[in-house]
Specification:
It is globular and about 70 Å long. The protein is an alpha+beta fold and 461 residues long. A hairpin with a 2-residue loop joins strand 20 (436-447) and strand 21. The two termini are 35 Å apart. Helix 1 crosses helix 2 and helix 5 (181-203) packs parallel to helix 6 (220-230). It has helices at residues 37-49, 72-79, 97-110, 130-134, 181-203, 220-230, 252-263, 290-293, 299-304, 312-318, 337-342, 344-347; strands at 3-10, 14-17, 27-30, 57-61, 87-91, 115-121, 138-145, 152-161, 167-168, 177-178, 212-217, 269-275, 278-286, 351-355, 361-362, 378-382, 387-396, 406-413, 418-422, 436-447, 450-459. The longest helix is centred in the middle third of the chain and has 23 residues, at 181-203. A nine-stranded mixed beta sheet has the order 5-4-6-7-1-8-13-12-11, with helices on both faces. The chain folds into two domains: 3-292 and 303-318, Peroxisomal Thiolase, Chain A, domain 1; 345-459, OB fold (Dihydrolipoamide Acetyltransferase, E2P), CATH 2.40.50.
Length: 461
């Protein structure tokens, strides 16, 4: 059976306290003004791919695509600097798409195609509504391959599809709507139980054999009912992170699965059940390779690295819900397609060059070495995972930004090279020369419907 070889996750830096939303305990994770579903997927996928080698296919699941008609997976593909031969595919339409994509990726892996599955969502709800309060933003990614290299093998699965009007949104609607909760529970709870029971049967297991049960559903009542229906003990049920992150749409099942893998031991069995327009269930058995496939940053590390004082008005501005006074500067010009294509490896993958004569790093990539003047004696080198430090910086309170002030730094890279870039996820009052930074893929701005992606630097999380 195929399985998970490596995984990675991402939870954005900002948190919005539910007290600011009119009541409730805890907080929800909020994608920054310069983040979207593709950029968060890149962050999770970078974690999953470190040390993983190549892949043959990329599946991207989201219900909050950056483009209505353009392949978001192509943006992720470019940011990860994957070969052109890697198949790229978008999957969406339901929050069930996260686990569905994982199962589809396992099918590809069983056919010999090593697959990267990334699921990411920016969950937006109508102001003062339940989706705004209970939602959250985040991403998860998995590298799927052969059983021999797996850290968790798929041992059982089941899928059921049902046409049920529970959560829906047309292209013209800014916010999703949901039918009365008791109806959703009545329809989805039996589907969840049937899918979970079938997956356990195929795995030759009983509910009590599971060390962890992950349950995610558009209907919270149906999700809470499943452990009771299966006879699962409370200590077997995974924390749904409702109080610290919120439900992260298509990414949520993957985020909870990753958190279970963070703490799992060889031989553990993890069940994952998702309900939306039907139900999917998967049973994984952890192998003795688990320590080799864990990312550098656990889910809990992402959660604990945060800033939790985001103002509600700022959140509404970032999501485009609240009109605001723009900076008194000309709007940014739309990026042009030809130069973006010509500079694809630099713009999306942050690939510079290194001189083969003097070994100096050149950022941006150059034909003529900035150190020794050698011409066309360069090799391409990615700096996306390179650390750097602030050499000097400036704070601009007039530049166009959804979150002023703009902080621009000159960064010196540990492996050589100097580059001027914008900082993000940083407090202007605490930035200092010498601070350690890491690169992050962000959306600089959107002009005339074109998203201008590039790399920024942030304090190490």
């Amino acid at each position: 059976m195929p399985g998970i070889e490596r995984y990675g996750t991402y939870v954005p830096y900002y948190r919005l306290r539910r007290a600011a939303l009119g009541g409730g305990k805890g907080e929800r994770a909020v994608a920054s003004y310069d983040e979207d579903a593709p950029s968060m997927a890149v962050e999770a996928a970078r974690e999953a791919l470190r040390g993983a080698g190549g892949v043959d296919a990329l599946l991207f699941a989201t219900t909050s695509p950056a483009y209505a008609e353009k392949l978001d997976a192509a943006t992720i593909h470019a940011a990860l600097n994957l070969p052109a031969a890697v198949t790229a595919l978008d999957v969406g339409g339901s929050t069930r798409a996260g686990l569905t994509s994982l199962l589809a990726g396992l099918d590809l892996a069983s056919a010999g195609r090593r697959t990267l599955v990334a699921a990411s969502d920016v969950v937006v709800g109508a102001p003062e509504g339940p989706r705004e309060r209970t939602g959250g933003d985040g991403a998860a990614a998995f590298v799927l391959g052969s059983e021999d290299a797996a850290i968790a093998r798929l041992v059982g699965r089941a899928s059921l599809t049902s046409e049920v009007l529970d959560v829906w949104r047309t292209p013209e609607m800014p916010f999703a709507r949901q039918w009365e909760e008791r109806f959703g529970q009545e329809v989805l709870a039996p589907l969840l139980q049937a899918a979970a029971t079938e997956a356990l049967t195929r795995a030759g297991l009983q509910p009590g054999d599971l060390q962890t049960l992950v349950v995610d559903c558009t209907n919270a009542r149906a999700a809470r009912a499943l452990p009771r229906a299966l006879g699962v003990k409370p200590e077997q049920v995974a924390d749904d992170l409702a109080d610290r992150v919120g439900r992260t749409g298509v990414a949520h099942a993957g985020l909870l699965l990753a958190r279970a893998l963070d703490a799992a031991s060889p031989g553990d069995r993890i069940g994952v059940v998702v309900g939306a327009d039907g139900a999917d269930a998967a049973i994984f058995e952890v192998t003795d390779r688990i320590a080799q496939g864990r990312p550098a940053r656990s889910v809990d590390r992402w959660i604990e690295s945060k800033r939790d004082d985001l103002a509600y008005a700022s959140y509404l501005k970032w999501r485009g819900t609240l009109p605001f006074e723009p900076p008194r500067r000309p709007d940014p010009a739309r990026p042009a397609a030809p130069p973006m294509h010509r500079a694809e490896h630099w713009k999306y993958a942050f690939a510079g060059t290194r001189c083969t004569k003097c070994e100096a790093a050149n950022l941006p990539p150059q034909r003529v070495c900035v150190a020794c003047g050698a011409i066309d004696q360069m090799t391409e080198e990615s700096f996306a995972d390179a650390t750097c430090r602030i050499a000097t910086y400036t704070i601009d309170r007039l530049a166009y930004s959804l979150q002023p002030p703009v902080i621009v730094a000159v960064a010196d890279f540990d492996r050589g090279g100097r580059f001027r870039c914008e900082l993000t996820d940083v407090d202007a009052e605490h930035v200092a020369i010498g601070d350690e930074l890491e690169m992050t893929f962000r959306r600089l701005f959107t002009a005339e419907g074109v998203h201008n992606y590039f790399w920024k630097a942030r304090p190490r999380r």
